Amino acid sequence: MVLTKIREMVIEGEGEEAVALIKQAMQANISVRDIVSEGLIGAMNVVGPKMASGEMFVPEVLMCAEAMQEGLVYLKPFLKDGDVVSSGKFLIGTVKGDLHDIGKNLVAMMMESSGFEVFNIGIDQSTEAFLEAIEQHKPDIVGLSALLTTTMPAMRDTVNDIREKGIAVKIFVGGAPVSEEFAKEIGADAYCPDAAETVVLAKAMLA
Ligand code: B1M
User: Fold this and answer.
1) Distance (Å) from CA 101 to ligand 1 centroid
2) Which domain holds residue 68?
3) Are residues 122 and 191 in the same domain?
């Protein structure tokens, strides 16, 4: 099946082949949502345990990540989420010490495709960088991403510092180790399990 082949090509780090298969999948009317979740994210779910068990090493995982990014970039214009257009501003970054950006970029793309003005400030962003970007872009919502248990404290610090400044902005948090409970504990306004849910929560928050 074509989704399985997409997953295999991403795992092998073959971005061009993955994109060619994505085109085939779209011609076969497979939804963009299924291509992203089963093909692209599915690949990362295979890669993660292999990385943890030492079966795959960082350079190989990076090649998978790049192949996945190629797929996402191709799919970006098709990542529409309904016809409702929101006029909100959304700023997103990965917290200090954390270099993971695939999920964050997916969230940014989905938010942009759903009518939000998006400011993606990148990876390894300190609280100061978030504060400067908030000052500059005046977003309605700030999204913080963390993929490592070791960078969750940085997420907590950034939320604290934004709150201490008394800035009127909603704070959304997400990333594999983050939970609803942790989001509540650090005083975030919402926990976003995935990109699609981030769009739903943002629209509800700004309605
Ligand atoms: Co890393 N890594 N990694 N890694 N990596 C994980 C996260 C890990 C679970 C793998 C494992 O061991 N099983 C593990 C973390 C363990 C832990 O802390 N509990 C890990 C580790 C240990 C590491 C290193 C320490 C490895 C090393 O060097 N020894 C190192 C750390 C570097 C650093 O950050 N300082 C490292 C490095 C890397 C690479 C650079 C090789 C590469 C990243 C490349 C890149 O991002 N450009 C990488 C990758 C690719 C992964 C895995 C395999 C895949 C992550 C991913 O992209 N998933 C990952 C294992 C896994 O998760 N299966 C792993 C797909 C993505 C779409 O999902 O990011 O969860 P995700 O995003 C989702 C949601 O979480 C949510 O929406 C997204 C889309 O639906 N979401 C948000 C995310 N952010 C959000 C923000 C929001 C809202 C929703 O704001 C509102």
Assistant:
1) 8
2) 2-78
3) yes
How many A from CA of 14 to the centre of ligand 1?
A: 19
CATH number at residue 93: 3.40.50.280
In angstroms, what is the span from residue 148 Cα to ligand 1's centroid?
7
Coil, strand, or helix at residue 197?
helix
**What is the per-residue pLDDT for 77?**
86
Tell me which of 100, 114, 203 to substitute to probe ligand 1's pocket, judged by most ligand atoms within 8 Å of the beta carbon: 100
Buried/exposed code over 150-167 (b: 16+ C-beta within 10 A; e: otherwise): ebbebbbebbeebeeeeb
Of 59, 78, 97, the last residue of a domain is: 78
Predicted TM-score of the model (pTM)? 0.85
Q: Is residue 83 part of a domain?
A: no
Co-location of 74 and 158 in the same domain: no
103 and 188 assigned to the same domain? yes
103 CB near ligand 1 (under 6 Å): yes
User: What beta strand segments (E) does 53-102 contain?
Assistant: 89-95
Q: State the 10-residue block means of pLDDT for the chain, 207 residues long.
A: 95 96 96 89 82 84 86 85 62 98 87 82 98 97 98 98 96 98 98 89 90
Same domain, 95 and 139: yes
Count: domains in the chain: 2
Three-state DSSP state, 175: coil
Distance of CA 117 to the CA centre of its chain: 16
